[in-house]
């Protein structure tokens, strides 16, 4: 099994060393193994778990909910239904965020089209029209 230094994990996951220590301290990350000299060594499983944490964090899951999910994972197969519920709830929130962003993107695209239309009108023919809000 491959092991990774903290620096390699930082490079692989994009988390800072402080974040990795914080996640370990609060229990989001299980205690990391250490060498005889006390240096942290991450396993492939640790790095994969951090990938999941990155996904959840980047999609807006609060730390308290990530901690709940981590506790469920540690309970083993008996918690699979609960894990599905946590992820399905989060997925609904992500879908709502995406829908909201799509609406905002459409408003931006309408504004771009408006400005392009304005640029296509010769200067002498432009009136003092009100700019649409969106």
Could you explain how this protein is built, in words?
The protein is mainly alpha-helical. It contains 5 helices and 3 strands; from the N terminus they run βααββααα. The protein has helices spanning 6-13, 17-26, 44-58, 63-74, 80-120; strands at 3-4, 33-34, 40-43. A hairpin with a 5-residue loop joins β2 (33-34) and β3. Helices cover 64% and strands 6% of the residues. The longest helix has 41 residues, at 80-120. It has a 3-stranded antiparallel beta sheet with strand order 1-3-2.
Given the C-alpha coordinates, what overall shape results? elongated
Structural class: mainly alpha
**Tally of DSSP β-strands:** 3
Gyration radius over CA: 24 Å
**What is the first-to-last residue Cα distance?**
55 Å
Given as residue ranges, the uncertain stretches (5+ residues, pLDDT < 50) are: none
Name the helix and strand elements from N-terminus to C-terminus, one letter apiece: EHHEEHHH
- Largest sheet descriptor: 3 strands, antiparallel
**Major sheet strand order:** 1-3-2
Task: List the total number of helices.
Answer: 5
- Compute the average pLDDT: 93
Fraction of residues in H or I helices: 55-70%
Strand-residue proportion: 5-15%
Summary, kept brief:
By secondary structure, this protein is mainly α. It has helices at residues 6-13, 17-26, 44-58, 63-74, 80-120, and strands at 3-4, 33-34, 40-43.
What structural keywords apply?
three-stranded antiparallel sheet, 5 helices
Topology:
Elements: E1 3-4, H1 6-13, H2 17-26, E2 33-34, E3 40-43, H3 44-58, H4 63-74, H5 80-120
Antiparallel strand pairs: 1-3, 2-3
């Amino acid at each position: 099994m491959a092991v990774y230094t903290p620096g390699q994990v930082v490079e692989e996951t994009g988390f800072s060393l402080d974040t990795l220590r914080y996640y370990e301290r609060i229990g989001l990350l299980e205690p990391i193994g250490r060498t005889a000299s006390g240096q942290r060594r991450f396993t492939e499983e640790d790095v994969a778990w951090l990938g999941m944490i990155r996904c959840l964090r980047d999609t807006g899951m609060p730390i308290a909910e990530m901690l709940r999910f981590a506790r469920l994972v540690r309970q083993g197969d008996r918690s699979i239904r609960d894990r599905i519920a946590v992820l399905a709830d989060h997925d609904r929130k992500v879908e709502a965020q995406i829908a909201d962003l799509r609406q905002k993107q459409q408003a931006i695209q309408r504004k771009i089209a408006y400005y392009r239309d304005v640029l296509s009108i010769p200067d002498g023919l432009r009136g003092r029209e009100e700019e649409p809000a969106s």
